[in-house]
Amino acid sequence: MSQVAAGASTRRILGASLVGTAVEFYDFYIYATAASLVFGPLFFPSKSASLQLLSAYASFAVAFVARPVGGAFFGHFGDRIGRKSTLVASLVVMGASTFAIAFLPGYAVLGWGAPTLLCLLRFGQGFGLGGEWGGAALLAVENAPPGWRARFGMFPQLGAPVGFIAANGLFLLLGLWLTKADFLAWGWRLPFLASAALVGLGLWVRVSLSETPEFAAVMARAHATPAPLGEVLRRHGRATLAGTLGVICCFALFYLATAFALGFGVTRLGYGRETFLGVQLGAILFLAAGILAAGWLSDRTTPRTVLSLGCAAAVGVGALLAPMMGSGSLLGVGAFLSLALFVMGFVYGPLGAWLPGLFPPEVRYTGASVAFNLGGVLGGGLAPVLAQALSDRGGLAWVGAYLATAALASLLGVGLAGRDV
User: In angstroms, what is the C-alpha Rg of the chain?
Assistant: First the structure.
């Protein structure tokens, strides 16, 4: 293959690993944003605004229950028939569920059927995303040349800030263009409708890809595992536990700095929705910078080293949460969010290389997906709900302690892995 063709192929591989996760995370984040701003009064009637917000966050958590199920399902086919077709299927499931949310009536029209359907579609979102990250990470790292695994593996991670910017940027523009009444009546539906175009883009990028060299070698040996999940649980239990613990911190950091912070900033600190979304959009750039720095450092050292340093720094972020978030200063809040998301780059960026490296190619899709999504349940699924409850009852210091505990759990997981990968 010529250098030009090889370069084009590499760009397409990295673009496919990034754009797919960007689309998937866009879908996930528009739900998180809508849950913080709209879904409480629309789907969960209550005299208490705090209870409405808690109910909306609980529906948000439904997808995290679905993610390990989706990880096991799509992982099975990713390890049996290939990365490419499985990635396409996961994207379609996620996109269809997101698109359908745009057409849901509220509680005033459908009664309890409305939140029930919302939770079912939320489950579909999580089920699709459960198969997305692992496949995108393998698409990148299994095509990486020697010495570049972490830098290739950071491209799926960069889909997170890209998707977040697209999601919150669109909500910000709608808030500026529409009246509050129009936004609550129908404007919030537009980001869900727009997901169809983004899913089409992701599919267009992915359908022409080839299988990764490592999986092709597995198939050439006729060595595909009949039951990948059983093999993971039977022979790779320690790696699965280590990986699960290792990803808790990144999920806790992200959802505390985005979904919880948005709800807290608007309802408790009294900032306007558009103002706070603008602050978060600025802060998310620090996540991208952290991911880039972590990818480069991980190839210079090891992903394990960078991940450990990031988890240790996250303990300090937990200590700063109460004084900075509770200061009432928008500058202080913005500085905290920027710091938290920059540190998140150091616990999220290395995962694209570290987590797949814990498993052999025959069960790598299943192992990495299940561990990543189980960690998501523990670190992210309940983070907004627990943080809201902790802040209501004990103040922000308890939320900071929760974050520090999540960081220590991830440090334990990195140590348990016991390998420099």
Answer: 20
- The 3 state secondary structure assigned to 252-310 is HHHHHHHHHHHHHHHHCCCCCHHHHHHHHHHHHHHHHHHHHHHHHHHHHCCHHHHHHHH
pLDDT tier, 421 (very low <50, low <70, confident <90, very high otherwise): low
Per DSSP, which regions of 31-163 are E strands? none
Residue range 190-204: average pLDDT? 87
Q: Which position has the higher pLDDT, 246 or 131?
A: 246
The H or E element containing residue 106 is: none
Residue 214: Cβ within 10 Å count: 18
What mean pLDDT, rounded, does the chain reach?
87
Query: What's the CA angle centered on 194, arms 189 and 200, to 5 degrees?
Result: 145
What are the tokens at 395?
Answer: 């103040």
Query: Are 255 and 32 spatial neighbours (Cβ–Cβ below 8 Å)?
Result: yes
Q: Which DSSP string corresponds to 139-159?
A: HHHTTPPTT-HHHHHHHHHHH
Is the pLDDT score of 20 beyond 50? Answer: yes
3-class SS of residue 211: coil
Instruction: Say whether pLDDT at 12 is over 70.
Output: yes
pLDDT for res 104: 92
Contacts of 112 (CB under 8 A, 6+ apart): none
User: According to the model, what pLDDT value does residue 154 have?
Assistant: 93
Mean pLDDT, to the nearest integer, of 110-123?
89
Please answer whether residues 215 and 346 qualify as being in contact, where contact means their C-beta atoms are separated by less than 8 angstroms: no
d(CA 24, CA 95): 8
Which is higher by pLDDT, 342 or 65? 342
Written as six digits, the tokens of 37 are: 């701003």
Query: Do the beta carbons of residue 98 and residue 27 sit within 8 Å?
Result: yes
- List all residues 6 or more positions away from 173 whose beta carbon is below 8 Å from its beta carbon: none
Domains of the chain: residue spans and CATH: 3-416 (1.20.1250.20)
pTM of the model: 0.86
Place of tokens 């692992």: 134
Q: How many CB atoms lie within 10 A of CB 186?
A: 11
Which of these, 408, 257, 400, lies nearest to 322 by C-alpha position? 400
Main-chain phi, psi angles of 134, to 5 degrees: -60, -45
User: In whole angstroms, what is the distance from residue 356 CA to residue 351 CA?
Assistant: 8
- d(C-alpha 120, C-alpha 38), whole Å: 18
